Amino acid sequence: MKKITMILVGTCLLLGLVACGGDTPKVVMNDMVSLLDTYVTSMDKAENADDIVRIINDFSEGMQELAPRMKAIQEKYPELKDGVKGQLPEEFKEFEVKMKELGPRIMGTLSKMMQYANDPKVQEATKKFQEAMATFK
After folding, report:
1. How distant is the alpha carbon of residue 24 from its chain centre?
2. Of the four, 4, 17, 72, 88, which is 20 to 30 A from 100 by CA?
3. Cα-Cα-Cα-Cα dihedral sign, residues 44, 112, 2, 108
C-alpha cells in the first residue's frame, strides 16, 4: 500500500505540474492539490463502504477531468517534469510544501480503504480509479 501511495503522490505531483490549455501550471496544480485535499478529508470522514466508493469515484472523475489539462502543460513546459525528482522551479515550492503535508494524510486513507477492501463495490471503484490513473501514462 505504501508503494501505491507513493505512486499516487508522485503522479499527482507530476500531473498537477503538467496542466494544460488556457490554464497555467499553477492553476492546474492548485486544482490538483484541492482535489487531493478533498479526497483525504472525505476519506477521514468516511463511515462505510458506500462512502468509500463515492469518494474514490469522485476522485477518479476529478483526475480524468484534469488529465487533458495536465498533458497539455507537460508538452508546453517539459521542465516541470523534474518536480517529481525534487527539482521544482522556485515558483512552485508552495505546492511542494502542500504535497508534503498531504503525503502522510494520503497514507492514512489507506487504512480506511483497507477496512472495506473486500467489499465488491469498493473493489470495482478501485478498478475505475486505476483506469483513471492509467490515463496519465
Report:
1. 18
2. 72
3. positive
